[in-house]
């Protein structure tokens, strides 16, 4: 069964639901739609972006109270009273207010990491809840009555059957735009936030902006849900916006599948129906009233986390496999613009007196090296010599304690990995850093993120509404070209995590090349490769050298290195002990001492 047919059947069922189902069921479906809209934001924020938030109910309240106050208060200033004359203008006002709050809260909260981040969301969630309950303007804990219904061209949506369609249009619009966003340039950057931030920064992704973007998007979706809720209920008090409800929203996202867009709807359906059913049956079993469903939910959550950690949606898709259309690459689209390369022989990288201390440990001490355009240079040494630390100093992952590092004449100390990547430097990693659940194509496309980048806001809007399809096809065509260059064309649409280690290293090389670098840093690129794969990689590096790209590589395979590079730097215990041509280095007593323990 194809996804298209399933969607058509789902849309037909939704369209017929108000005509065939009883009022109670329609009300339940309305709540499922409202809850799923909030859970959808949590899928983007928590499941995809890896940012746990318990405070989304507060943003629902912000949207609900904004529209309730604007449409019911009689003593507002004239310009605010004018906004309150239309429920749709009140929606825009709520979105604007939520945007401002989300940006301010996000800039503070998202600086936190680990368990401090969810604790921070609990803090501002509780704060907003008590604001709703204690401000007289908002009706206190008594609440606000008389909220008018939504109207379009004079027709008022009174009753659950009429607002049903509006709620589900909002939800489906949110599902479609979220799916579109995740299938775009900015979507790949967002998916890299969970477990791949260091890699993404080195590829030119501004992860701080991406984190803030999904935080704001999740807040805006919650605000829209609050607006719909206020005009459906036509009465507000703070109870539906408490931290307990915020936890329920997170439950919905996790149970349905925190990394799956449709998981938000599944989770909201399961939790809402289960809650209603348990509230009816548990008091009869226990013999007294109480919130016994919370106990059942707690036990169920533990079971889900043990048995289906990715949620119920992936389990459901295993039972009902969906035929997916293969992705297409258009080789005829115009190529991405390429950066100007330095002239052959021009110094691209210059490191002098670079030192890196970690407390009392000196990992790199007074290191110096140069790399010129059209040259392959090797940095070798025993394990623990400081080679990868030197790479991290050059690429901006670490900031040198002392010394000077210049790339194309510009000083690099103090610059972030993202800023250095934008200058034309790209790299691979000693320990492979990729996104295993994404395809090889999407992983490599992250490398081209910074090329012809329209900016975050434009990228998010264009991605959500599929306005950047031609630019996306150009970017994917570039990624496909680099995949073919490293010999992974047969694996282009495979999951990156399914590749053996050697091919994962080739994937990293392709991703680095997609950035169109002037300087390529390769950290043990031949590790895990078989003999023929190493020969193909060596031939590729020679072609890149002929194109004028400067290459600095760390490698332990001396046969691979000595037959390929122009010059060699040798490190031991954080210091440079030798430099020169491969033949010269191989005969140096200090190198033999470092590798073999002595000339003998």
Tally of DSSP helical segments: 24
- The chain-level mean pLDDT equals 92
The 3D shape can be described as: elongated
Poorly predicted tracts of residues: none
Sheet of most strands: 6 strands, mixed
Supply the helix-strand structural class: alpha/beta
User: Which strand order spans the largest sheet, edge to edge or round the barrel?
Assistant: 10-11-12-7-13-14
According to DSSP, the number of beta strands is: 14
**What's the end-to-end separation, in Å?**
70 Å
Rg for CA atoms: 29 Å
Q: Into which percent range does the helicity of residues fall?
A: 55-70%
Describe this structure in words.
- With 600 residues, the protein is an alpha/beta fold.
- Helix content is 55%, strand content 12%.
- The chain is built from 24 helices and 14 strands.
- It has helices spanning 3-20, 23-48, 56-72, 78-83, 87-109, 116-134, 160-182, 185-191, 197-202, 207-233, 243-256, 261-286, 293-307, 312-319, 387-395, 417-423, 440-447, 456-464, 469-485, 501-513, 531-546, 558-562, 582-586, 589-596; strands spanning 144-145, 151-152, 155-156, 235-236, 347-358, 361-372, 376-380, 402-407, 410-411, 425-427, 519-523, 550-554, 567-572, 575-580.
- Strands 10-11-12-7-13-14 form a 6-stranded mixed sheet, sandwiched between helices.
- Helix 1 packs antiparallel against helix 7 (160-182), helix 2 packs parallel to helix 7 and helix 17 (440-447) packs across helix 19 (469-485).
- The chain is elongated and about 90 Å long.
- The mean pLDDT is 92.
